[in-house]
């Protein structure tokens, strides 16, 4: 049975476009996470730690090596913004 050579051009284009899209999506997600891989299966503890890291450094994936938190860390808690009833 002869090979339909005309079908190889669209097959190659579709393969290249899927590969390019996947590569760009992976690159975009890594750039949003400061070069670190994407987190999967995030539970409540991880969510709380990401919120803490965001308050400490300004980014949910940023971490700080200093032993003491900045002075404004005491006043930027989410609990201060909720209304007490």
From TrEMBL:
* Top-level taxon of origin: Eukaryota
Briefly state the protein's biological role: Accessory subunit of the mitochondrial membrane respiratory chain NADH dehydrogenase (Complex I), that is believed not to be involved in catalysis. Complex I functions in the transfer of electrons from NADH to the respiratory chain. The immediate electron acceptor for the enzyme is believed to be ubiquinone.
Q: What is its main location?
A: mitochondrion
Q: Which InterPro entries match?
A: NADH_Ub_cplx-1_asu_su-1 (IPR017384)
GO cellular component labels: mitochondrial inner membrane
- Membrane topology label: Single-pass membrane protein
Asked whether the keyword Transmembrane is assigned, the reply is: yes
| UniProt keyword Mitochondrion, yes or no | yes
Which UniProt key words apply to this protein? Electron transport, Membrane, Mitochondrion, Mitochondrion inner membrane, Respiratory chain, Transmembrane, Transmembrane helix, Transport
Q: Where in the cell is it found?
A: Mitochondrion inner membrane
Q: What protein family is recorded?
A: Belongs to the complex I NDUFA1 subunit family.
* Membrane-traversing stretches: 7-26
Protein name as it appears in the record: NADH dehydrogenase [ubiquinone] 1 alpha subcomplex subunit 1
The segments labelled Disordered in the record are 56-85
């Amino acid at each position: 049975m002869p090979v339909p050579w005309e079908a190889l051009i669209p097959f190659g284009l579709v393969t290249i476009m899927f590969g390019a899209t996947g590569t760009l999506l992976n690159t975009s997600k890594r750039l949003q996470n400061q070069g670190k891989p994407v987190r999967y299966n995030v539970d409540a503890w991880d969510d709380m730690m990401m919120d803490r890291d965001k308050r400490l450094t300004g980014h949910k994936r940023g971490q700080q090596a200093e032993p003491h938190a900045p002075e404004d860390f005491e006043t930027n808690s989410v609990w201060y913004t909720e209304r007490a009833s």
